[in-house]
């Protein structure tokens, strides 16, 4: 297992690499060019600048999260080949710079969706919250305003105002896209990019849908064991793999996450660990990484990775906002709770290492 940290880039994150160096056990930085909208060309010098900066602080920059997919590819329209060519160009450039894993998602229109970015928990901290009824009863434009308004001007990946400005148009384009069509469009994309990934040794790692159910009538296809099986079978190559995010799969109680990790372990290149607490009415809130605080058995999750000898990259996913840090940090991406999450995961991991050593003696 290689512990990593998601960082938003040079001059784009209050949490610097010098801060991150002080968190025990972190060897890699998960990065992206966050100013790039889906479909934009990534320049080699920008990639190199970031990689050099990351390496100069003693980290690897092996994982990029995310290179986003243009809606024309998800829609499967006549412009898709042009956008796939640009995507392939980025894969090649990232490979050349030493990148090993690319995380992406295939959610139509919206990336992660929440109704309150700062819901207070009983201990006075706050965290991202999803109110099921509210999403069922409101239109997509209102949810976008709610999220962007709540973020108070902070930029957030997945919620780029440029794209959200065209919501109505986008929804119109998706009106005939159902689950099967979306799977076919994903297959088309993978059939073109995976041979390149095999050639240049970059593993693709799709991120599950968050929340793991369809919203606003849009299909969502990476959200359960069966959907993941279907996805992996689209192109049966180790280069067609997963980002296994426990926080995204977690809000659906039917998802047996330890079982999913066991079943698809050899195709998991990147592990996101997050805990969520699910309420009776289907709402959920993000909580600390501690197993007891939510519905995801994070101890069992780490144990399963340990048992399988997981060699891939792992990171704490979203954390709560603590000690007033929500004033500055990106929602879900403060320093303190994610750092504590790392220590929790490493505590479990180190204990299991020790037990194994003792058994072997
Ligand atoms: C998610 C996503 O892991 C996360 O933070 O909430 O924003 C994720 O980064 C993307 O869906 C991956 O493409
Ligand atoms: Mn995640």
From TrEMBL:
Catalysis: reaction(s): D-mannonate = 2-dehydro-3-deoxy-D-gluconate + H2O
GO-annotated biological processes: D-glucuronate catabolic process
UniProt xrefs under Pfam families: UxuA
The keyword Iron belongs to this UniProt entry's keyword annotation: yes
Needed cofactors: Fe(2+); Mn(2+)
A GO molecular function held by the record: manganese ion binding
Protein name per its UniProtKB record: Mannonate dehydratase
Organism: Anoxynatronum buryatiense
């Amino acid at each position: 297992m290689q512990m990593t940290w998601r960082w938003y880039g040079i001059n784009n994150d209050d949490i610097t690499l010098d801060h991150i160096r002080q968190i025990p056990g972190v060897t890699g930085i998960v990065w992206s060019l966050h100013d790039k909208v889906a479909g934009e060309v990534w320049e080699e010098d920008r990639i190199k600048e970031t990689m050099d900066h990351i390496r100069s602080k003693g980290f690897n920059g092996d994982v990029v999260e995310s290179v986003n997919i243009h809606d024309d590819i998800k829609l499967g329209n006549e412009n898709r080949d042009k956008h796939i060519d640009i995507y392939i160009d980025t894969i090649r450039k990232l490979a050349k710079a030493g990148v090993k894993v690319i995380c992406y998602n295939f959610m139509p229109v919206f990336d992660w969706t929440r109704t309150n970015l700062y819901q207070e928990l009983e201990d006075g901290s706050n965290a991202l919250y999803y109110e099921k009824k509210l999403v069922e009863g409101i239109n997509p434009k209102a949810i976008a305003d709610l999220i962007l308004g709540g973020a108070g001007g902070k930029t957030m990946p997945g919620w780029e105002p440029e794209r959200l400005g065209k919501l109505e148009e986008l929804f119109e384009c998706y009106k005939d896209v159902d689950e099967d069509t979306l799977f076919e469009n994903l297959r088309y994309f993978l059939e073109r990019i995976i041979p390149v990934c095999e050639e240049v040794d970059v593993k693709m790692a799709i991120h599950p849908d968050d929340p793991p159910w369809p919203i606003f009538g849009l299909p969502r296809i990476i959200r359960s064991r069966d959907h993941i099986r279907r996805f992996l079978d689209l192109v049966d190559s180790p280069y067609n793999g997963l980002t296994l995010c426990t926080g995204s799969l977690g809000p659906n109680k039917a998802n047996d996450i330890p079982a999913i990790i066991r079943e698809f372990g050899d195709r998991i290149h990147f592990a996101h660990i997050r805990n969520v607490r699910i309420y009776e009415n289907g709402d959920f809130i993000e909580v600390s990484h501690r197993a007891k605080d939510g519905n995801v058995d994070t101890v069992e999750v780490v144990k399963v990775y340990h048992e399988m000898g997981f060699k891939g990259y792992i990171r704490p996913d979203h954390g709560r906002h603590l000690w007033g840090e929500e004033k500055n940090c990106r929602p879900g991406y403060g320093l303190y709770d994610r750092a504590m999450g790392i220590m929790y995961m490493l505590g479990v991991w180190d204990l299991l290492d020790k037990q194994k050593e003792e058994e072997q003696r």
